[in-house]
Amino acid sequence: MDKTNHFLRSRKLLFIFTILCSTGVFAQVSAPQPVLPIPDANQLGWQQMEYYSFVHLSVNTYTDMAWGFGNEDPQIFNPTELDCRQWARIAKEAGMKGIIFTAKHHSGFCLWPSKYTEYSVKNSPWRDGKGDMVRELAEACKEYGLKFGIYLSPWDRNHPDYGKPEYITYFRNQLTELLTNYGEIFEVWFDGANGGTGYYGGANENRKIDRETYYDWKNTYKLVRDLQPNIVIWNDGGDRADLRWVGTEAGYIGETNWSLLDSTGDVPEDMLRHGVENGNAWVPGEVNTSIRPEWFYHPKEDGRVKNVPQLMDTYYNSVGRNGTLLLNFPIMPNGLIHPTDEKNVLAFAEARKEAFANNLTKNAIASASEVRCKSSTFNSLMAVDDDPESFWATNDNTKDATLTLRFAKPITFNRFLVQEPIQLGQRVKSFTLEAKIQGSWKEIAKETTIGYKRILRFPTTTATEIRLNITDAKACPLISNLEVYLAPIILFPPIISRNQAGEVQIKSSDSESEVYYTLDGSLPSSKSSKYQRWFPTHDGKITVKAIAYDPTNQSISEVSEENFEISRKKWKVLGVADDNILNIIDGDEFTSWQNDKVPIDLIIDFGKLETISGFRYLPDQHWWAETSIITQYQFFISENNLDWKLVSEGEFSNIKNNPTWQVNVFNPLTARYIKLKALKTVGNNNNAGIAEIDIITK
Ligand code: FUL
What we know:
Layout: H1 3-22, H2 41-49, E1 51-56, H3 84-93, E2 98-104, H4 133-143, E3 147-152, H5 165-180, E4 187-190, E5 196-198, E6 205-207, H6 217-227, E7 232-235, E8 260-261, H7 269-274, E9 281-282, E10 286-290, H8 308-316, E11 324-330, H9 339-355, E12 364-368, E13 392-393, E14 401-419, E15 428-437, E16 440-447, E17 454-473, E18 478-479, E19 481-485, E20 495-498, E21 504-507, E22 514-518, E23 529-530, E24 542-550, E25 555-556, E26 560-564, E27 572-574, E28 593-595, E29 600-619, E30 630-638, E31 645-651, E32 662-681, E33 688-697
Parallel strand pairs: 1-2, 1-11, 2-3, 3-4, 4-7, 10-11
Antiparallel strand pairs: 5-6, 8-9, 12-14, 13-18, 14-17, 14-19, 15-16, 15-17, 20-21, 22-23, 22-24, 24-25, 24-26, 27-29, 28-33, 29-32, 29-33, 30-31, 30-32
């Protein structure tokens, strides 16, 4: 049949179907046709997992590096207290559905005794060289009812053949070992970092490969699927795999998020983030991020484990945006997850449980602007029943529709969860949410895509009705689930900062909580000054104390306190032309100034004489800036920028592991100028990085 005939015939069938539909002739109403592309069974099962974990451990855990070079001695690998059951227990208690393990990271070191290399646990002291960590974790996952996944780095900085065709055979041999000997594997992860410098069996050189062709992904994928028919493949390079990277490791995906890409062509960052509305391949997004700034364990990050508000944010920005969340635990050299990581991830689980404890749609009466063929199989109740398989459906030619929930008594809520039955394709292009507040409708959200799951956050609202308006769709809209919640406010002590101009800003972790503060040293309460926006202060020293307050249940957070030195309004950094220099006195710990002039003199002019009794230095807080942390310094003062007096010199002890504020005090002295001389840095090179410099006055 030619295309025109086919088109006319399907139009005719649709017309007949519509007539029969409207007259209710069909007793058995046909289900809507899928809108292609749709997920396959493996992708569907994977999407339903929603949240699972990554575990990073390798030889570079013992050298405190982000990546291993490939020349690390296997003898350094000795996680003496290793207990994969601890990882599995934590993942299970955290509500995760599986664990993906770095069986081989870029270093090439194998955490299972691969028979194709000597560079593995079999030459380490761990379990006297008889251990197999992949097996131990596979068994622990089984015991805890978790799925098990494998990260096998395509890039291997140890292997002598990396870059040559022989390496592909080696890589596939290892894949075969991993996908054959350890039971069912739900996901395999082929990292996109590929090629560069490495040990390469002693060659110590830079090897480049063509990411598109070198691994012959087509045949590598075939091998994977033959060995593990239920697997999903993640790949950030080469041929399109089953899942896509979202273009960032910061823990979010686009609000507009299509689970589609085109099967060929480049995928720029914007597409990774948002997918492609009319893409011809189902390639959903997985949000991979670490519970700490980095993927591997570094003691210096012990104070930087993501807390509950940050993890909740990540959850809403991943699972709540039609993605999955792959959250990483860096394993300590002793083989365990750090207690802070455990504490925070379990508190995060608790917070999710509380947020989604009571689904308010249970007592709602649902009605819809239309129901497919007026059939009870597809009526609006299907969106609020407990059956994830059933769904509310509209007629074939519909592009917009409304579903209303009516409540016997007004409900108070701040979260809205909505799902499409993606087995029939992702359809909704745009929607709004309205609430009937004291008799009139008010729009509370205007959004684009839904997909497998979308969760919206908005200010707490009390309403008698809620209306989902689907305003545009690729094909007739279908909704399988609607849930409405009142999530408690998460109260954390607010963050207080003071900028160079002396203005104070106080931030709460929850936009709905109220913030109260004091400036006289007294304990703040809900009767203290209410924070509205940043406020100016005098130029002297000030103490700010603040609390976050939840007016709904009148609970308060712990108190946060900051003692600010004299304002830096008139301060000048002398002799540096770079605009970023002001970052070192802007009061913002996350902005910094980097230079490549070590040993360097940094001179600050206060504008007038001050009596000072110490100074403080905060290194650049970016994870990549570790080598620029100043370790050795000299500190001078002067009244006239000519005669300098050395008042302190030495080393900032343990600064590499603990890159927080360094405080140095001395007997009070009068000065208008200070000079910090950076003599040496962690990286022993010319780069020094500074987030903040401050002084201590008498
Ligand atoms: C990145 C790697 O280079 C990191 O080390 C980590 O494994 C992360 C999951 O992927 O591309």
